[in-house]
Design brief:
about 575 residues; mainly alpha; about 75% helix
Length: about 575
């Protein structure tokens, strides 16, 4: 049987074929539609696609631009095409495009090439913090710009060199470059109209360079003048930037109120490192004003910014050092460990980025000591956590034992209470001499007489008299205290004091159980009622006889009475 394809598969194949034809047509159409475009028009189309986020069209325009330049053997436009492909996101690929720019324009007569290629490479290395390679390329760019006498790129190259000199601590050399560029602009007729942006840039850099060279007065003059010009043309962005420079100059002049006012006024317009540096100065001013809490608040804000942007600056080491000490003073080991980690990371980054910086501009932090402290803190925290775990386990065991003990005691009390409720204690005590004790050296007549008197004493509840004593009772019985004591010890099997307490507590228990009026009494009232001088003596005697407190006994009876 001959195989016949499924109708759905036929339709699918047909759709794919149509799609490929349309794509090819679209590609050819796009190529045809661009064939009559000039480089300027292609450049505009590329810019529009870029700003609109249309990456597909952007790729088409850039590729056609380069192909057109190659077809026409136009090296200058090829260089511009390579520049369009630079994304500032993939350093390795972008550097290759820069090298292509340099390669195709090395023999160019154009005033800006191959200088532009070297400047692009220098800027990429600079923003990638590879300052040595950045400097190499700035120097080459400067030589090409000088050779071609093209001032804009001469200035750009010199500004890059000055920036690296600042990073390496060569502030005096950088200052000379900034002064040269500033004077070159301000000596130009009508520079405010023709070279305003250059003027603002150079004024800003010159004022900062004066500050780095410990000449804040000169920085104030330059920045104040530039601020006036920026305000006159409603350039608020430059005005705020220069305001930061002016505040910095006042800070180094120790004009703290003016610094504080300017920073707080413009702070909302700053972000990133500019905001961090503002917080740093505000923190130092707070320290000068002995406001430690405010200083720490500003330094913690710097930490928050650093966690976001991850771009360290030299003062950041001081910030983390202060935060570390503050956490130590508060006994916060976890925060101490966090700040040490940050300090070590910042120092490591700065060491890499500023390896050739003169030692006199480095802050004197003993990083090896901090690393040792970090190890000690880590160990201490680990030990504390282990101790906490052990303490938790021990506490749990103790708590469990305590609960078992309390439960056992509660059940014991409950059992004793139930025995008291179910059985009435005997109010009289029959003579029960211990067999092992020798007979008393007292006549039988006297013994029998005293025992009979004691029986009547118990029946009359005479023991409730709080003032009764061994001597007074012996006197009432017409005998002596010695006989009385010996007879009670022998036949009642307790001393006189215990004998009285036993009688009184027994009577108290029976009375309270029978007459609920006693439930309204306080412990003091009951003690007085049943022959005790103090509530404490009553409670102690009650507990010795029953094993429970009178308050517990009364409480349970009251509960039952209420129900």
């Amino acid at each position: 049987m001959r195989y016949t394809p499924n109708i759905k598969i036929k339709h699918l194949c047909l759709l794919i074929a149509v799609f490929l034809i349309l794509q090819a047509f679209h590609g050819n159409y796009a190529q045809d539609s661009l064939s009559n475009k000039s480089y300027q028009e292609l450049s505009k189309l590329s810019d529009d696609a870029f700003y609109n986020g249309d990456l597909e069209r952007l790729s088409i325009y850039r590729t056609y631009y380069l192909d057109k330049a190659k077809t026409e053997n136009n090296n200058l436009e090829m260089a511009r095409a390579y520049q369009y492909f630079i994304t500032w996101e993939d350093l390795e690929t972008d550097l290759k495009y820069c090298d292509s720019v340099i390669k195709v324009t090395k023999d160019s007569d154009h005033e800006a090439y191959p200088t532009n290629g070297y400047l692009l490479k220098a800027n990429m290395y600079y923003y990638g913090s590879d300052f040595e390679k950045a400097l190499d390329n700035y120097i080459i760019a400067s030589e090409w710009a000088d050779a071609k006498g093209y001032k804009p790129l001469q200035i750009e190259a010199s500004m890059g060199i000055a920036a690296i000199k600042n990073i390496w601590g060569l502030h005096e050399e950088a200052l000379e470059i900034y002064k040269t560029n500033y004077l070159d602009v301000t000596s130009t007729t009508d520079y405010m109209a023709d070279r305003y942006e250059d003027y603002i840039l150079f004024a800003n850099n010159l004022a900062l360079s004066y500050i780095r060279n410990q000449k804040p007065d000169s920085a104030l003059v330059v920045s104040s003048r530039a601020m006036s010009h920026a305000r006159s043309v409603n350039d608020s962005l430059s005005y705020y930037d220069l305001g930061k420079v002016q505040a910095t100059a006042n800070y180094y002049l120790k004009k703290y109120p003016q610094t504080q006012d300017s920073l707080l006024k413009f702070l909302s317009h700053y972000s990133g490192l500019t905001r961090s540096d503002s917080y740093y100065m505000l923190g130092k001013i707070a320290d000068y004003q002995n406001d430690h809490a405010l200083k720490m608040d500003y330094f913690k804000r710097i930490d928050s910014i650093h966690q976001t942007i991850g771009d360290p600056f030299p003062e950041l080491k001081e910030v983390y050092n202060e935060l570390y000490k503050d956490a130590g003073n508060k006994g916060d080991k976890d925060r101490q460990l966090y700040y040490i980690d940050q300090l070590i990371a910042v120092d490591s980054t700065l060491d890499i980025n500023y390896a050739t910086v003169n030692n006199k501009v480095r802050l004197e932090y003993d990083i090896p000591r901090y690393k040792k402290e970090k190890r000690l803190l880590t160990t201490e925290l680990k030990n504390k956590r282990q101790q906490l775990q052990i303490l938790t386990i021990v506490s749990f065991i103790i708590l469990a034992i305590l609960l078992v003990y309390i439960n056992h005691r509660h059940r014991k009390f409950k059992k004793r209470l139930q025995q008291l409720l179910d059985n009435d204690p005997v109010e009289t005590t029959e003579p029960k001499p211990k067999k092992e004790k020798p007979a008393l050296d007292i006549s039988e007549h006297i013994i029998n007489t005293v025992l009979e008197q004691l029986k009547q004493f118990e029946a009359d509840k005479a023991y409730l008299d709080k003032d009764i004593t061994l001597s007074s009772l012996a006197k009432d019985f017409n005998t002596n205290s010695s006989y009385m004591s010996n007879i009670i010890n022998h036949y009642k099997q307790m001393n006189f004091s215990s004998y009285l307490k036993d009688l009184r507590i027994t009577y108290a228990i029976n009375s309270i159980k029978k007459d609920h009026q006693y439930l309204k009494y306080s412990i003091n009232g009951l003690a007085d009622e049943f022959g005790f001088i103090t509530a404490d003596s009553f409670s102690k005697a009650f507990r010795e006889k029953t094993g429970i407190k009178p308050s517990y006994f009364l409480g349970k009876l009251r509960e039952e009475n209420n129900t």
